[in-house]
């Protein structure tokens, strides 16, 4: 019996290691290529464990035109859009999860349908609207768009997190003389914080990735371009310079990875409590 | 039923009485829910519904490059829809999109469930290791991931070709993956599955952990087999979360665009042209913005039909709350 | 509680930052572009590799010295996805003032109504002397929208040192000689020729040599013609040549930029415009003086291979904020003085026939001029740009090069071309 258990445990761990390898390898390959000298990248036998490291590719990437500006633009647009979406979604999620009102079902349905919007195919109408309202070439336009991209999903997730916080706690606070609002602020909100952080990560990834609109709506002001557009023209400019391209990709992925590492524990606990109640 | 806390669990009857019931405040609170959802509704109306309506308008006009630049589009009724729906190409694309969605979603949810079950059984250290890897894969931005896959499958110096040659498949020496329709399709599936499994797996795993261990324990004491426990304990618990994950994955995979566009632009020979890619192509290359608008309207309708069952169930559930 | 305050603070900060950022973008991107000192800023889009960095600097300096009230901001655009970018620019309310447009693309933009009619400037610019390969595509319904900028056709750039080492004394003048020489050069790490699989302009020349074409006009309608025996023969030769190097079968000369590949060494020949040699030398100074040119060999020695006459026109969008200053800019760049300098600096064919003599002493340009005697254009359909935008010819090439049945691939591509040209 014990032996069988050990075998089971062993094969389970082995399988887990295999999944681990498959999952991590592309990320590892990106980072290691970025740090490898060109000679090792172009070696006929791939160098799996780099022994010589170089920052040369990062210098190439950062030295490329406008890297700093695009990075800052991207961060700005993404953070503002996500924070805006969180604030708006918090209200909506609270209403849906805690209050009964006429039209609630319709509202939830609307949020789900909004999630289905075929954004890429709506490039031209959005472009026309932006042009006619004088919003072309403005980061504010992109910010608003990314806000609405992330909003439906943010509401859906936040509502799940909110539903997982026992309503009784809030009520107890109200009994103790708190108003509904301060009860929410003092009791529910702190419990919700992990959920908020997890959700913000989702939003961040979505907005950080967007490319098509950024390419079409920022026409003339090259200084207002954002990182995804830069990355695509970058891999073009440098072509087979996989080292520089991977260094650029690493720099692009960095904020999300850092954010995740910082939030990791909160996010996973957030998931546990939040996603139970879809 | 103005302000009424959603009864999530059975509460002791006295609780209702203890709630502060000030008549005047109550009435002013009727507005609360509406105030809270107002920003969302406004945002959706201005930033989503309005462009959608403009899109709908476009789909009934003759709208090309000239109209985009100078304005003055003509109303043409259902011409655009007729042109799309009677052409064979469009239906090929629809079928391909359905295949694309099915293959991806089945793989994603299947693999994610296995990984979630695995996570549940792993020791602490292994679990954290695997969770971190999943998180890294999930957090890698789409564009970066897409670039990585291009590099992995590059015909020269690509690591995949190297491994295959090492394993004895000499024909993969310098093999051009992106020249063959099926190969490109497969790579895109691998890419999308790789990116999507982490979210689904972590979510399902989270749902699994809400089942108290005692239940499993007592079931095991009763002599239930693993399979039986999975079927009668795990599956029912997972059902609602499955619904949500399935629905979201269908939406995401169906709408998937960036990966396909960057890697293949829908080629070779249209082998990877799904609906969003097709719509982008007719707008980009043929400047038929009218056809694009019509095709995106059809896309929404199609998605709505596919998700109808889920949405209906959702609507009913919401009513019960 | 801490988190709450932190979040709120972050939100406020972020919103404030975004507001100030929007304010900031206002004063730099304004259409009128009138600065404090009465200088007008004009935005100019030139394509990658259209001018070298040195030339750009020199021209900008001279232009701004002569026109102190104009601040010319030249932005270099990538070829990839440029169609969408130009469309977005032409349809906007605040377009760039001057845009360089490829000569196969200019007709569709001119026809769309988003480009300024410059017919009344033709005389002042000496339009009667323009080379037709650039002037005609820029003309729609008798009105001149595009101003010829420069032309070029492809030649073979080769490494003189590697030819010498291989014992090849004379440059090839027929296809047989060319194949034989390339075979000799293709040894070990060294590539006989770097020919990416999707260099469709080069393929077009080979098809023209066989007497075929990419598309033919039958009455009112255009039809693809890649399934004809002539086209397949041209493709056959391309395949034979392509195999004598390590050019990727599934991409074109822009990805990776072939200039960079050649600059790394180990490549004996490459098909490019002569200006490519300068860019190669710029990237790898060691190759200076080691690059030679010859026209793409034809089927017989008496006639060079057919080549596509490429080039660009300059346009002023209707939505340009400063059309007058834009015209001043075009007048300078397309004027005789700078055309001569551009032609010698970049080895381009200048926009006027009478200026061609400046190239006499340039080996690259004279090879190009020889080839130009057999120069051709893409099928003259206004819808041709649609074919290029989602190029079925490239797919056809990759298919054949990776072993597909040429007839079947040709038929598929032919159908796709016919469809694009049929609208």
From TrEMBL, chain C:
UniProt entry keywords in alphabetical sequence: Signal, Transport
InterPro entries noted in UniProt: SBP
PANTHER family hit by this protein: MALTOSE-BINDING PERIPLASMIC PROTEIN (PTHR30061), MALTOSE_MALTODEXTRIN-BINDING PERIPLASMIC PROTEIN (PTHR30061:SF50)
Annotated protein name in UniProt: Extracellular solute-binding protein
Superkingdom as given in the UniProt entry: Bacteria
Signal peptide: 1-21
Family: Belongs to the bacterial solute-binding protein 1 family.
High-level lineage: Bacteria, Bacillati, Actinomycetota, Actinomycetes, Kitasatosporales
